[in-house]
Amino acid sequence: xxxxxxxxxxxxxxxxxTSFAQLVSTHREDSxxxxxxxLLTSYYSIKDALVASNxxxxxxxxxxxxxxxxxxxxxxxxxxNRNALLNDAVAISQSKDLNVQRVKxxxxxxxxxxxxxxxxxxxxxxxxxxxxxxxxxxLSDVKAIKNPYYGSAMLTCGSVKETL
Length: 164
Known about the structure:
mainly alpha, three-stranded antiparallel β-sheet, 61% helix, globular
């Protein structure tokens, strides 16, 4: 009877160790993947650099955005969306010309808005804002308008069009 009892205990211990190892392995995989919120935070950094008319910072932040896309779980982001976002981010990161960056940012913003409508990127509201002069939108975490397309020349030009 004691042998059976010890055999059951050994099997239970082995099962628990296997389950624990699987749990740790799954956690490690999850910790190397970016969360969708990291992508949004990185996007906001690009926007803020363009608001400040800082092409160098916008370029560096676009590089970080591209890294966040590449580390995002492929189940969250379809390949075509991933490629569109990456193309926009790479174009911004490779340019030091604010005008070029702002043109690509309009495309990046449209692609981010499409993603934000299908994937919960934040627990906080996301404001889609629109510049009538540029005829382009962008996303913001605040209602106050800070236009990334014209910087200080037209800092408050625009309006909130939608809240997600």
